[in-house]
Amino acid sequence: MVDHAKCHRTENNNEEVQTTGRALQSFPKKPEVHLSFESLTYTVNTYINLKKVKKEILHGIGGSFRSGQLTAVMGPSGCGKSTLLNVLAGYSISGSSGKVYLNDSLRDKNQMANISCYIQQDDYVRDLLTVRESMTIAAHLKLPTTVSAKSKASQVEDLLDALGLSIHGDTVTKRLSGGQKKRLSIALELITNPSILFLDEPTSGLDSQSCSQFVSLMAELAHNQSRTMVCTLHQPSALLFEKFDQVYALSSGRCIYQGPPSSVIPYFAERLVVCPPYHNPADFLIEVAIGEYGTDVLVGLFDTTKITNTNGRNGYHTICDEDHEEIELEIRQEDNNTNDEQSLYKTELLKKPPFYVQIYHLYFRNVTMYKRNKTNLLLRIAAHLAVALIMSYMYLGVGNDAAQVLANMKFVYGSNLFLVYTGLMAVIVSFPLEYMILKREHFNGWYTLFSYFISVLLVEIPLQTLCCLVYIVPAYAITGQSLELVRFGYFAVFLTVTSLTSQSVGFLCGATMPLKMSVFVGPVFVVLLSVFGFAIRFPDIPSMYVWLHHFSFIRASFQSILYSLYGLDRGVLPCSDEMYCHYKNPVKFLTEMEFARVNIYSEFFYLCSFLLCTYVLTTTVIWYRLNKR
Ligand SMILES: Nc1ncnc2c1ncn2[C@@H]1O[C@H](COP(=O)(O)OP(=O)(O)OP(=O)(O)O)[C@@H](O)[C@H]1O
């Protein structure tokens, strides 16, 4: 009953995935790590009637998860299962107290990241990559460069084989079923062969057959590779329940049971809580945890676990009555024998590929995803061309006509605003969705934030630049602007850099706010800044808003473009009006608009500074969010 690690299951249950042990033989052996914890408390700040109050979610609990075992953390909804996993995995740090041990040593943050991975409830995988592509890129990002590409490929194939994903290797991830996606998210993390795997609700959304397959697979992974596997679970069927080696049951943030599933009924019966005949023990456990057998029973159970938890870090905790003392003893002896081997885990920090290799693979991944989403890409380019043609039609030939200078100013403003919006909106919506994947991958140590951000910019900047040029070239020509190369150069550069600056604002909004808020705040911010470029002359701006005029990068771009079109010693303009052209001399226009003394170089410097500062701010905000635990 005790040695679940060695107890390979022999059911012939027609499952898709049965080859784990064999297929993963080629993987480098990782140290066995037992995880134990004591006096674990987790507190959050909440607000009641606008008053800040502390809410304790985990109340000084203890427990032990052993290598080679699959442990289910169970309990009713809201009892603190995910919180416990978050705290143990190091995902939630602030607000937690207590001791977490890896084998005999207190948990070290870096070591924990090196030997464990955390797979959260939602399947945040890259929809547009195939299963094999996802795995290959993960292998390149997570394994050291000293591992050859051939060896990485064979490791990927082994894992796909082990998790029953080989036949879906070339399937795009978005076409996978829920169970297959879950298996893929595990496979992605198994590449580094972590000693500890935390899985939050891995069976949610799966039908009973998929659940059963999935749990068998996890049990196999735990047994064959001596991994410590811990997953949260809601209310499993009796059959599923039995597949686990250990159950850790929580009730309102307190432990009421830890031990094998088969001991649940006898354990509670000894405490005069009797399971009705033919009742699913998992249901019974939840009912006890909810308090259906009386709250005094629960209090008694809390007290028992508290006393037994003082038994020590690496022993069983709850099952401490006479019948089970033997079990505890056996495990402790086993611990002593393997102590030397266990301490090894501290020396094996994985060497990650250097940042440029990470950038290369992340860039390659982004390009592959863009290529696979051609419709979106073409639509983005086509929209720029279509608007260029509409604007050109509306402002046909206004660029070289003294009678149409004001119309040309509107064209410049419209162009500016259009490219500002396309830059902004292209990323403001996508980034919040992207953030969830980034969070998972970054937490599991795939790459650094710097590499990630550079790889995103390496794709987004050229793409937005291309879109801008698709707009600028026809619009400039058809609206009859000056054909001097210098003026065209300034026009194109200012519009493109403004669009990229706006894109950086989109990144910032997407990184700092939830989607619903960012799609509102981003455009409002842009409108506010654009008002100070066009809708109001400088002398008319109320003094309290003057700073906004100077701050506005859209204003900087708008004034610079008009200056480069009508300044820089442009001669007298042809006039289509036979009677009178007020702005025959373009200097007159610039003077009246208060643009005559614009220094386009300093404005360009300001635009670039704005762009860079926003990138730095965005990276800082993301870094803070990713590390705020
Ligand atoms: N940041 C927070 N602020 C306030 N309350 C929180 C916070 N995080 C968690 N909680 C509360 O702590 C309790 C435990 O949450 P947790 O998500 O761990 O429960 P769970 O057992 O995983 O639930 P479920 O099975 O429904 O996912 C819940 O009552 C939840 O509302």
From TrEMBL:
Superkingdom of the organism of origin: Eukaryota
Spans annotated as Disordered: 1-22
Transmembrane helix among keywords: yes
GO MF annotation terms: ABC-type transporter activity; ATP binding; ATP hydrolysis activity
SUPFAM superfamilies cross-referenced by the UniProt entry: P-loop containing nucleoside triphosphate hydrolases
One GO location term (cellular component): plasma membrane
Principal location: membrane
Subcellular location field: Membrane
Bias kind Basic and acidic residues: ranges: 1-12
Keyword ATP-binding in annotation: yes
Domain spans labelled ABC transporter: 35-277
Keywords, in A-Z order: ATP-binding, Membrane, Nucleotide-binding, Transmembrane, Transmembrane helix, Transport
Membrane topology, record value: Multi-pass membrane protein
TM region(s), chain numbering: 377-398, 418-437, 449-476, 488-510, 517-538, 604-624
Family: Belongs to the ABC transporter superfamily. ABCG family. Eye pigment precursor importer (TC 3.A.1.204) subfamily.
Protein name stated in the entry: ABC transporter domain-containing protein
Organism: Acyrthosiphon pisum (Pea aphid)
